[in-house]
Write a structure and sequence with these properties.
The chain is mainly alpha-helical and 212 residues long. It folds into 2 domains: 3-21 and 135-211, Helix-hairpin-Helix base-excision DNA repair enzymes (C-terminal) (Endonuclease Iii, domain 2, Orthogonal Bundle); 30-131, Hypothetical protein, domain 2 (Endonuclease III, domain 1). Helix content is 60%, strand content 0%. The model has no long low-confidence stretch (mean pLDDT 95).
């Protein structure tokens, strides 16, 4: 099987099974999406969705959060992972967003990464989800699933995975493909015990071929 055949088969399957994949994070604005993605680092979307309603009610805009103390924000997000550093990052991010970008989340991946607490993965998510740009955010699920399926080979880090995926996935499908791989990893291709018997990608999957 060629690399192109594997990509074509896998992408066609996902397109049929999940024609309109969506982020599982809850948000009502670009700013809320950015906050939710920052909170989701090494934390489940379910947990983030539990804390953001009250957080967004208290700080609905960048300006409101920019005026907050870190301790005030910490009160709302204490149950997520690394709450102290995330609270500090959120306040600093909101202040820079207000001072430099007039409260408007930038649609540029490099500008996004100038915001405190925003790394490449977060910037890629925001660019793809908020602005429909062909950016590939690589979290632990995407990293694992891409390698298992054979979409990447010997990828050593998220950036290598990102580059291999973007090289082969048609540009219009890149934003969708992030969700496809992430959701597949979250619910089917589990880290410790992948549900291969329930997976519709067996015929293309390198991991299944080598372990069946």
């Amino acid at each position: 099987m060629t690399t192109k055949q594997r990509y074509d088969g896998i992408l066609a399957w996902f397109e049929q099974q999940m024609p309109a994949p969506q982020s599982e994070l809850h948000y009502a604005s670009h700013f809320q999406l950015l906050v939710a993605v920052m909170l989701s680092a090494q934390c489940t979307d379910k947990r983030v969705n539990q804390v953001t309603p009250a957080l967004f009610e208290a700080f609905p805009t960048p300006g409101a959060m920019a005026e907050a103390d870190v301790e005030q924000v910490l009160h709302y997000i204490s149950s997520v992972s690394y709450p102290n550093s995330k609270a500090a990052h959120l306040v600093a991010m909101a202040r820079r967003l207000t001072e430099v970008y007039e409260g408007v989340v930038p649609a540029d991946i490099d500008e996004l990464q100038t915001l405190p607490g925003v790394g490449r993965k977060t910037a890629n998510v925001v660019c793809a989800v908020a602005f429909g740009q062909p950016t590939m955010a690589v979290d632990t699920h995407v990293f694992r699933v891409a390698e298992r399926l054979g979409l990447t080979t010997d990828s050593k880090n998220p950036l290598q995975t990102e580059r291999q995926l973007v090289r082969h996935i048609p540009t219009p499908l890149v934003p969708k493909a992030h969700h496809w791989l992430l959701l597949h990893g979250r619910y089917v291709c589990l880290a410790r015990k992948p549900k291969c018997e329930q997976c519709g990608l067996q015929q293309w999957c390198r991991y299944y071929k080598n372990n069946s």
